[in-house]
């Protein structure tokens, strides 16, 4: 785990306020484009958002126990499709450390490389221990495949739940949350977090490297950053500004908001995937990667989409 040498108060002061919503083309799930792209993709990958498993009774719209069977169904699909890798965008569990013992064997049914992001529900223990349980290389990381760079952010880096109460990150999170609450920001929620200063510097360096190598970049985080929403990461505007500096960035994929969402903003597709844990049909995706687009083949409640890359 990387621990910032100093808090990101300077960056936070400049970026915590929500920016005005930019004029953008948006598609709701009801009007999302069908996944009918022509030509053979370069590769495919699987995505799961918010399985949020717990051996707990159904509460509200969330069927916690049902996620075991739903994830098993997704594993079968991914294996039949021969995906190059699979990513889960966080909230693999709802609570209780023991939940990892029950859902990880199902997750491990998926063949090929498997990648985790950290979600706000994944912290019955703190970040270092969760990383170890999940076998993560770090709380944030990147990897490349066939001309594409995938960047996995930790949007819980600065939060009140992922860090020990005596830690500088926890103290900073409390300060930020209090400030955002006083300002009336929609995302001033205790179940949100932000990307810290050290991680932001790392993020900038990775995007610069990907651009220099001619790679297209797909960024993934647990929390959304666009459109404006109560679920957004605390420093959503700073994350967006960093991505928009680099023409290589084509999409940002996330979970956290279980109902899903979408916005196209300044050439970047922001896709909030639906939560698997919700009652009713399943929700997961196979993403087909082409030179000029991502084609999302949604299963269950997840809509199909074609995300064409803008000419930049």
Task: Please describe what this structure looks like.
The protein has 312 residues and is α/β, with parallel strands linked by helices. The protein has a single domain (26-308), classed as Metallo-dependent phosphatases (Purple Acid Phosphatase, chain A, domain 2), CATH 3.60.21. It is 26% helix and 20% strand. The protein contains seven helices and twelve strands. Helix 2 (67-81) packs parallel to helix 3. The two termini are 35 Å apart. Mean pLDDT is 90; it is low at 1-37.
Features:
312 residues; single chain; disordered N terminus; 6-stranded mixed β-sheet
Write the CATH architecture name: 4-Layer Sandwich
CATH topology: Purple Acid Phosphatase, chain A, domain 2
> What is the tally of beta strands?
12
- Strand line-up in the sheet with most strands: 3-2-1-10-11-12
Give the helix proportion (percent range).
25-40%
CATH level-four homologous superfamily name: Metallo-dependent phosphatases
Counting DSSP H or I runs of 4 or more residues, the number of helices is: 7
Gist of the model:
This protein has helices at 9-15, 67-81, 98-107, 127-134, 168-183, 197-212, 236-244, and strands spanning 43-48, 85-88, 114-116, 141-145, 148-152, 216-220, 249-254, 261-265, 268-272, 283-289, 293-300, 305-308. The protein is α/β, with parallel strands linked by helices and 312 residues long.
SSE layout:
Blueprint: H1 9-15, E1 43-48, H2 67-81, E2 85-88, H3 98-107, E3 114-116, H4 127-134, E4 141-145, E5 148-152, H5 168-183, H6 197-212, E6 216-220, H7 236-244, E7 249-254, E8 261-265, E9 268-272, E10 283-289, E11 293-300, E12 305-308
Helix pairs in contact: 2-3
């Amino acid at each position: 785990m990387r621990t910032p040498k100093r808090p990101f108060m300077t960056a936070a002061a400049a970026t915590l306020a929500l920016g005005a919503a930019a004029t953008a083309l948006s598609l709701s799930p009801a009007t999302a484009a069908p996944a009918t792209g022509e030509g053979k993709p370069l590769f495919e990958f699987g995505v799961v958002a918010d399985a949020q498993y717990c051996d707990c009774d159904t509460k509200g719209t969330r069927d916690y126990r049902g996620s075991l069977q739903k994830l098993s169904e997704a594993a079968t699909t991914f294996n039949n499709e021969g995906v190059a890798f699979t990513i889960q965008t966080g909230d693999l569990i709802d609570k209780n450390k023991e939940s990892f013992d029950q859902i990880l064997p199902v997750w491990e049914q998926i063949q090929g490389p498997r990648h985790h992001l950290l979600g706000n529900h994944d912290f019955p223990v703190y970040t270092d221990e969760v990383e170890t349980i999940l076998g993560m290389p770090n709380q944030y990381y990147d990897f490349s495949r066939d001309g594409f760079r995938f960047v996995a952010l930790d949007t819980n880096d600065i939060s009140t739940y992922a860090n020990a109460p005596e830690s500088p990150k926890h103290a900073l999170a409390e300060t930020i949350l209090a400030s955002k609450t006083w300002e009336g920001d929609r995302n001033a929620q205790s179940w949100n977090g932000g990307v810290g200063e050290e991680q932001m510097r790392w993020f900038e360096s990775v995007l610069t490297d990907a651009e220099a190598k001619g790679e297209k970049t797909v960024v993934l985080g647990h929390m959304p950053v666009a459109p404006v929403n109560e679920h957004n990461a605390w420093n959503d505007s700073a994350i967006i500004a960093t991505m928009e500096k680099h023409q290589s960035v084509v999409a940002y994929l996330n979970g956290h908001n279980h109902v899903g969402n979408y916005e196209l903003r300044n050439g970047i597709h922001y896709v909030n995937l639906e939560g698997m844990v919700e009652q009713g049909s399943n929700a997961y995706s196979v993403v087909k990667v082409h030179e000029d687009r991502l084609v999302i083949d949604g299963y269950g409640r997840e809509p199909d989409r074609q995300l064409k890359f803008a000419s930049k």
